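Archive transcription. Copying these from loose printouts into the bound notebook so they stop getting lost. Printout 1 of 2:
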Amino acid sequence: MLQQQHTHWHFSADAPSHASLDAHVSQAHLAPPADTTAGWTIVLSTFLNPTTAPCDLLCIPGVLRVCTRMHDPRERDRQNYPAYPMPDGSVPVLEAIVTLCAPSFPAGKEMPIGVPLARLQQSTGMHEVIVHFSGVHWSLYVDGILYDTDFPLGYPQWPAAPTWQRDAHQTTHAQLWIPALTPQPAADPVQSAAPLQYWTPPGHNTWVGDVVTIMHAGRYHLFYLSDRRHHQSKFGMGAHYFEHLSTTDFRTWTMHDAATPLEAQWECIGTGTPFVDNEGRLCLAYALHTERVCADSDTTLPAQLAWLAHHGETGTFDRSTPGLPIGSTYAVSADGVADFHKSGIFMHPCRNPSIYRDHTGALRMLANYAGAADAAWGKGTWASAHVDGGWHCLDADFPPGGDCTFAFRWGTYDYVIGGFVNLWSKAVDAPDATYQDLVSRGMDCYDGLNVPAISEVSPGRFLMAGWCAIRGWGGALVIRDLIQFPDGGLGSRWMPELMPACGHRQFLGTMDGDHRTIPVPAAAFLWECTIHPQQNATGSVRVHFVPAAEAENACEWQIDLGAGRAQFAPGSAHTPATRQRSLREGGNPAHAADYAIEHDWSNAEPLTIRILVKTDNKLGGALIDVEIAGQRTMLSFRPDLAVNALTVSCTGVSITEERIAPLEQNLLQ
């Protein structure tokens, strides 16, 4: 169960509207706003009909257009509108398009937001449409529900004598407020049955970005960068910010208010880490990627670097420093659970800070990303007596890479996992100079997750959380139980608290060779079996995911016990798949597409294999999750694939206890 944020909003007007169009007036002159940065809100009463020809519902030339149109049902870029088609397959949408001007684009640039009409609670009939421009947010509400938002850069250039008009047939009233009204929650948070495993935030174009976690005072906190449009908000700058979930039992979750909401046009937030500071406060370090909005010379970076060069440690800066803030900062929880407030302190120039407490309780930072690859202040291990400043470099050469690193200690090993492809380890009593690259030794745990964060949640139990890419940057949330092997290598398995229950299992019997095709029982289903090698821990199994249509993106998963490999690859039941590369060999599991993993399963015979497939319209394809012998997992997303059947074949092994079942819990968002 997930307790979500407020889903309904209202706009209370304390003053008369700036202008209005009533049932008898469909066009009028406007007085331009005295302050273009104050924002504005328009409330429009309109009749929406998916079968009506596209039209402009409301227009302020050069500023705004609210319209309906037909969208290409094959085009998912940016808005992902085809996630909600009409029964006939068409995708009519409601859009609001504002034209913004900024020094870098003085002629103006359009910023559209929208919603597919099929997503509305009632696609046909009268609706209250609210378009809201605050300067920081550009948002579309229909009948009190927020359906889309983007994050402006620049402001509309209002004409000297603007006019506005509504469609006399499709609309009845329009009201304009200048300055903008403030949205207020209209109802208590709601409960949702959507499970957290493979979860995406509510919405047609909403995704989970970088995830960071901490266990604090018996509560597991998970922060994720909220993403719309796969990093294409704010004209491609991302405009991410940290949302916040927490739980005490991993079954009931609370969605808190955003930990670091965007409050200014220059804010572009990147990855950090939660940590507990010297005063025992729950904090969240994060990055300010202001370089996406302006040149470094227009930020506080020159002052920060000058201080570092002069003092040999970082200084403490705030908004009084000339230039826009950039680099590392943090927010603090007022109650130790949620209610985060930005500190306003900028204490390090690196743009992805990873702050943690080491085993002695001392504050440490792994500096990540400087913008320039050769900038010494954008890497290395740093220490300080206080988070606000005084950070000095302990080791300029470690970690040697990874743009989003996470440090943890497990038993007799220290680890640093880094971003998409890096993992290092050393003995706890050894110096940092002895960290070894586990990826080069094939001992990593990358399984299709991006930027994984690892936290100890109870003695000896570690969880790994990250996101699985769905058609671009950002995707679905996935959490794993980590496995530690005696040699210090890491693996992973499914987390029992988060896996959905199964419906009726269909038992399929024993198979000693050849192949069989199995119809699938639902769009979300689980297939599992036990593999018994016939001799010397060799043999192989192939599972081909048969598409509903030949044109779809077919693929297969296979395991080769003798070679100690498993892989996802393109292929059909009749065409052998090509050999894929593991991360050690230069492959990239982070793409969650075609890749291999390496592992010795000889100590796990017989092997239990479990494969979960989730297909839905929002994903626009199939998310395939595999668990091998409770020791390794593999994720793959296959766009434009609807699995119609499985073809299972085996060589040199026997398959027993094979069964397939629909997932009882609804996985559709």
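Printout 2 of 2:
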Amino acid sequence: MTHMKLPLYFCLFLATILSAQKKDITLEDIWKNGTFRTERMDVLHSMANGQQYSFLNFNRQNGSTSIDIYNYKTFNKVNTLLSSAALEAIPYFTDYTFSENEKKIILATNEEAIYRRSAKGHYYIYNVADESLDLISEEKIQEPTFSPDGKKVSFVRDNNLYVKDLISNDIIKITSDGKKNEIINGITDWVYEEEFAFVRAFDWNLDSNKIAFIRFDETNVPEFSMDVYGSELYQTQQVFKYPKAGEANSIVSLHIYNLETQKTKEVKVNKAYNDFYIPRIEWTNNPDVLSAQYINRRQNELDLWMINAKTNTSNLVVAEKDEAFVNVTDNLTFLKDDSFLLTSERDGYNHIYHYDKNGNLINQVTKGNWEVTNYYGYDKSTKRIFYQSVENGAINRDVYSIKLNGRDKKRLTKTEGTNNASFSADFSYFINTYSSATTPPEYTLNSAVSGNIIKRIKDNAVLSQNLSDYKMSKKEFSTIRINNNDLNMWMIKPADFDQTKQYPLLMYQYSGPGSQEVVNQWNTANDYWHQYLAQQGYLVVCVDGRGTPFMGAKFKKVIYKELGKYEVEDQIAIAKQLGDLPYIDKERIGIWGWSYGGFTSSNCLFKANDVFKMAIAVAPVTNWRFYDSIYTERFLGLPQENASGYDENSPINHVDKLKGDFLLVHGSADDNVHLQNTMRLVEALIQANKQFDWAIYPDKNHGIYGGNTRLHLYQKMTNFLHETLGDKI
């Protein structure tokens, strides 16, 4: 067969024709039609044998749910353990939890959300052996939890802690002083749930005869109220305790209830704390020894206590201190000899450390100028630790294993991008979730020994094929030198980019401590919006500036006591430097962000009115005095001690500088960043006689979603962009 070489002009003509045939992304594709939705795997429960896992399946035909058992190696279904179709009491359930011996299951139904992580509902105990089903409580409850022996279940109802004996069905009321907006037993208050990221504040010991719990006295915490407009003639109000920076927190105390004596003792540690938090409690492998982490209100001293419930004594085993702040994690792991593993930034990067039971350091397990980003667990049979890190660059994630002594490290994932593992109970396998900026999520079964792929489970080949029909631009990763730091950056250019032309620039960022936006992973919904804007003729850029994570503690903690200073300086410098590029129109630079990103974009527009032409701020903090105590004080200290840190970098104090175009958006039912932030900023802008655009979404929380809400919001933001930056497109 002979091949004919085509003329160059014909090749260019053909490429133009093919490009013209590509479909445009629409806002409806992103926010309504689910065009770019990925196939995902829900979280699996690894069975105790390590060879099987359970999965919650939904039957679309009859609306029932089932717990099905699958084999890891084959991914074939072994059997259906339970189906709601066979249960008269509940037509479906939304979640399930096994007892430790897997002979009983807690089934959740009628759950209703309270805040970000909390919910209450009706919960049933299903007995696998006799297939019986028993309702735990007629009233809705929170956090039902099996005792380790599976013979009891503890739960919280109306702010009080209970234990139900599953043999006699007797219920013991451990506390009786619980009262809404005053006393909470065993469940966290709003600010703990939001900032320390947990709800269940009680824990069973190994012998199932003691329960440790935290009591919250929020009587003196100021109340916050939100109008809920709904559809009735009169609006209602949601009233809850919310400690703002510098205001009274809940008074917390730690207690241990003994089921044998039916008595509760308050724990007293051997240190006088003035104002403090208890962000974690966990029983050790010794049924008489409870671990508890105490942190001072300034959050720069974290103490790990070992409390002997039998002798009522306490031993301080680790005292972590930092000039800025100390992180609270879930990485504490107790080994068989009562030694333990813990992560720390003590050498400037987050790494794993091994301590003996008295807190003496045995060794630093991981080392290097990189960070451990996830701790998966410890395999006692091989004495190996499994973790995720950014050893292969801060924008990538890989899964590793390493010996307890810090030797024989193995990289278990091979492909550059974002890898995340879910291990079997015996650490023989892991299901790896992999994606990159060019590859949608892929799920594989891997060997925990070699990391080799045993079986490919699921991919998104159909989505990849569908996307090939659309005008998509490459997300280009690079670094940019700003303020003596190499910052990670991505850029999305129009598919027909012409470097001889000039394009308007939209900068996207979050910028807050602990949050990373420049990651080599698959698209979020915002990425598709940015692609949509690129096909409209915009150039979109995102840069993680100082204060963001995984570049070392010094890089992250530079923002201490100066929230909104260095992050804003970096974004302004980025805009100036990019504005000097020949293909960027420096007269048409905008910036947008959500939450902390909205705070930053507001500051950028106000403080650099000669650099930014416009900004969009969604659900922003506008004054740090309005935000919660734990988050704000961690980075700024108390407002009584650092007034300038609060005021000099809060957008509300810089409204007089506004020159460009400003769009301000908030949900009226935002329990996190209150609408108060926007309302007070609006009033300040009005009194400064500044024109701006704004929108309030009724009864929407911090996420501003539901029905057509997101579609409406992004259409509004798109229109605003076209009006302010798109005049030459």
